[in-house]
Amino acid sequence: MSVGPLQRRDIARCVEIEKQLFAGDSPWSAGAFRSELQAGAYYLAAYDDDNLIGYAGLAVAGPPGDLDTTVHTIGVDTAYQGQGIGTALLRRLLARADELNAPVFLEVRTDNDRAVALYERHGFTRIGLRKRYYQPSGADAYTMKREARVGEEAG
């Protein structure tokens, strides 16, 4: 597996994976991915040879010196789940947030125990509950936060 910047040519494959993973909750469209890349969000792609098998995105907002980051998405093709790809992508996103000395926020389905456990292992704590956050399923989401880390705390 290799990890690099997400390219525009990868968008169609991201949409395929979105439909596989999030069919009941409005999977992202090609336009949504294009907008994220155009806005300058930090997006990564995981490849098995030349095949895109996962992606992840981090948005950065705020004035210099007072930045916040938000994990917008992490997706891994179901055929490749359980191999550490999501963990590798998350760690790269967190490393970028650490470079910026920024806290990291995210939303995750309350019934996605595997994802919640992954985030908790990486220092996230639950700070809120968003009722019926995911549509059209109406699933609830936890809002989670990881404080900014610098120096020896990072990583």
What does this structure look like?
The radius of gyration is 15 Å and the shape is globular. It has one domain: Aminopeptidase. With 155 residues, it is an alpha+beta fold. Helix content is 28%, strand content 32%. It is built from 4 helices and 7 strands, in the order βααβββαβαββ. Strand 3 and strand 4 (68-76) form a beta hairpin. The relative contact order is 0.15. A 7-stranded mixed β-sheet has the order 1-2-3-4-5-7-6, with helices on both faces.
Strand order of the largest sheet: 1-2-3-4-5-7-6
Helix content: 25-40%
Mean pLDDT over the full residue set: 93
Q: Predict the CATH topology.
A: Aminopeptidase
Strand content: 25-35%
Class inferred from helices and paired strands: alpha+beta
CATH architecture, by name, is: 3-Layer(aba) Sandwich
Number of helices: 4
Order of helices and strands: EHHEEEHEHEE
**What's the gyration radius in Å?**
15 Å
Unreliable segments of 5+ consecutive residues: none
| Largest beta-sheet details | 7 strands, mixed
What is the global morphology? globular
Terminal-residue CA separation: 20 Å
In total, how many domains does the architecture comprise? 1
Within CATH, the superfamily carries the name Gcn5-related N-acetyltransferase (GNAT)
- Class in CATH? Alpha Beta
User: Would you report the number of β strands?
Assistant: 7
Domain N-acetyltransferase: 1-149
EC number: 2.3.1.266
Enzyme class: transferase
InterPro entries: AcTrfase_RimI/Ard1, Acyl_CoA_acyltransferase, GNAT_dom, MshD_Acetyltransferase
